[in-house]
Amino acid sequence: MSSSKPNAAPEPIDIPQIDLLRWWHDLVHWLTLHWLQIAIAVGAGFFIYGLLSALRSFGKRQKLKLAGGQGYATGLILAKVAAKTSHFFMVMTSARLVAGYTNPPELMMRTIVFLFTVSAVFQSAIWAREIVLGLIERKTLEEGSQGETLSNAMGIIRLLVTTALFSIAVIVVLDNLGVNVTGLVAGLGVGGIAIGLAAQGIFSDLFAALSIIFDKPFRRGETIRYDQTSATVQRIGLKTTRLQAVTGEKKVIISNANLLQKEITNLAHLDHRRVKFAIGVIYQTDPDKAAQIPDILREIIEGCEGKFVRSGFVNFGQSSLDFEVEFDVYAPDWDEVYKVRHRVGLAILKRFNKEKLEFAYPTQTTFNAAPDGRMVMPYPTHDNVKPVG
Predict the structure, then answer these.
(1) pLDDT tens for residues 80-99?
(2) Burial of 131 (0-12, 13-18, 19+ CB in 10 A)
(3) Cβ-contact 308, 272 below 8 angstroms
(4) Alpha-carbon span 286 to 265, nearest angstrom
(5) What's this model's pTM, rounded to 2 decimal places?
(6) From CA 79, how far away is CA 315, in angstroms rounded?
(7) Are 263 and 226 in contact (CB under 8 A)?
(8) What gap in Å lies between CA 336 and CA 330, rounded to an integer?
(9) DSSP SS3 for 262
(10) For 67-141, where are the alpha helices, taking DSSP H only?
């Protein structure tokens, strides 16, 4: 008969304990064999950490020093990048630089390399975010850009940049862990397309607002003309732009995407404006007198601070002889142009009255025909009034 006990459970083997014990023996052996190299490496590691920490502190001081200056200099961007260096990255960088000198156990070396990779990837994402945001702010703040529009947009820009960079960082870390990220990247792409299609209108206006901020076709306070409307820009938002018509009777709110699809003329940077007058005089005007009208208009315009361009006869109208005059007013402000045009108009009226040049207006004259076909006036004259008796 067998003396074995079929119901007896086999003795468990504690594999993790054996691995931990083996790791402990390897660690003790490593410390005993390489204690001098370890001591030197620790000292070098503290020295490297001190240098990185000093660079970080210098960046913080420069950031506070340059923050109150004008503009957004490259030095301020680099200072903000240095100030964002994390302690974890500095520790792992120091450990990674000195680890190879001490010949550590394989498990420890793999752990150091992995932690250094994680810290370096996320630290690079933080640095890249500060550089991108710094360059964007410098681009938008130079040349007197509107800070209000930038502050409205920077929240969205910061969110988009942060999401993109840290998504890439997570994918890189997972790839270093041996995870197959192909499916994850494909899923994120499909999800991004679905979100983009669902919010197509919102993103269209948002990117149009960013285009206005970066490209600067116009700024707040400037006067623009699109379609048949001339208006002053009051506010540039993330979705809409608010305009005040120069005529003053209406306020226009138009989406950024719709506004950029139109042909826009920025009137703020024009050094002069061209003004045109159409003038009609009666047909009874003496031809020699009519020939003097362009010279008369030149004198009037030059006396009212305008620059004469051209003038002349343009058409035989239904009730008038039509003349036209064009002149430039060198003033960027539309109100000043308006005042010059007003003075020119009144000066033309006074001078024409003085020269006995009559302005035409729509009239009709009825002529009567005599029995013999001769045209006679509808009122008594010496020709058609017969004496009585």
Answers:
(1) 888 888 899 998 888 888 88
(2) middle
(3) no
(4) 43
(5) 0.53
(6) 70
(7) yes
(8) 9
(9) coil
(10) 74-83, 87-99, 106-141
